[in-house]
Amino acid sequence: MHALLVIDVQNDFCPGGALAVTGGDEIVAGINVLMAQFDAVVLTQDWHPAGHSSFASVHDGKSPYDMIDMPYGPQVLWPDHCIQGSDGAAFHPLLETDRADMIIRKGYNPAIDSYSAFFENDHKTPTGLDGYLRSRGITEVTLVGLALDFCVNYSAVDAAQLGLKVNVRRDLARAIDLNGSLDEATKAMIGAGVRLK
Ligand code: VGL
Ligand code: ZN
After folding, report:
1. Of ligand 1's atoms, which has the minimum distance to the CA of residue 10?
2. Is 137 exposed, middle or buried (0-12, 13-18, 19+ CB in 10 A)?
3. Burial readout 54-91 (b: 16 or more C-beta within 10 A, e: otherwise)
4. Measured from the CA of 152, which atom of ligand 1 is nearest?
5. C-alpha distances in angstroms, 185 versus 60, 129, 162, 168?
6. pTM for this prediction
7. Does the Cβ of 146 fall within 6 Å of ligand 1?
8. What is residue 167's predicted lDDT score, i.e. its pLDDT?
């Protein structure tokens, strides 16, 4: 069983959004076509409460894209984005969400960011996706979506470490590319045994 994981194809990560990824909207049509080819389709949705600890706006004297040390490790500070219930947190209007079997939300814990679809950034607190995939007999996943160097990367590496066979379709993903983050992510994925396509 092979699942398609569609990572964070939300308005805030598309042009015009709060944390826009260049070309983020260009991948939507291709993802819709791909959905029909899988045994299961899972969408993830970045879903932060207002005042989330990953937002630069809640840290005195900090700007978006600064780094801080959190109890669980270094954390990039982001513009306010994907606030629960906002238009920015909604899926891109052309994404065919009706085809999804499962929608998993992440980043709802105010104190911990969650790039990965599997674990929060403490690398310990599970989202439940591993159990869902296992109980459906899924052994292989293909990832697409936003952003390639953050949530796609972390999700792909965790999936590989959990023993799944993992593919990333880079043609259906776009990167933020912050201070070499795309190169670093590419190395991390290759190191984890992710197959980059
Ligand atoms: C993401 C930064 C902050 C992502 C989410 O979806 O890659 N990046 N929150
Ligand atoms: Zn986020």
Report:
1. 6
2. exposed
3. bbbeeeeeeeeeeeeeeeeeebbbbebbbbeebebbeb
4. 7
5. 29, 22, 18, 12
6. 0.97
7. yes
8. 98
Q: 81 C-alpha vs ligand 2 centroid, how far in Å?
A: 6
Tokens of 66: 């600064």
CA–centroid distance, residue 169 to ligand 2 (Å): 21
Candidate of 19, 75, 91 to mutate for ligand 1, largest count of ligand atoms within 8 Å of Cβ? 19
The β-bridge relationship of strands 195-196 and 165-174 is parallel
In the chain (197 residues long), the average pLDDT of successive 10-residue segments reads 98 98 98 98 98 97 96 95 98 98 97 96 96 98 98 98 98 96 98 98
Residue entry with tokens 């005042």: 51
